[in-house]
Specification:
It contains three helices and three strands. By secondary structure, it is α+β, with helices and mostly antiparallel strands.
Length: 78
């Protein structure tokens, strides 16, 4: 579906903009899929086991993705 591919592309672009901040702390992020209006991501490295990862996901990643990609309503870690 073209719409899903377009959303995935836009989400990947948004993640590229915040990736350096995550990498600076020894972590990383990967887009797994976009299902409906939900971006599914995988936190890697230090972010995968950090006790603050949920806050990073909600306050940092989700906010940045939602601002860059209006079609996305939430970001979930898988």
């Amino acid at each position: 579906m073209a719409d899903t591919q377009d959303l995935k592309s836009k989400v990947k672009e948004a993640l590229e903009k915040i990736r350096p901040m995550l990498q600076a702390d020894g972590g990383d992020i990967e887009l797994v899929d976009v299902v409906g209006k939900v971006a599914k991501v995988k936190l890697k490295g230090a972010c995968g086991c950090c006790p603050m990862s949920q806050m990073t996901l909600q306050m940092g990643v989700q906010r940045a993705v939602k601002e860059a990609v209006p079609g996305i309503e939430s970001v979930e870690a898988v």
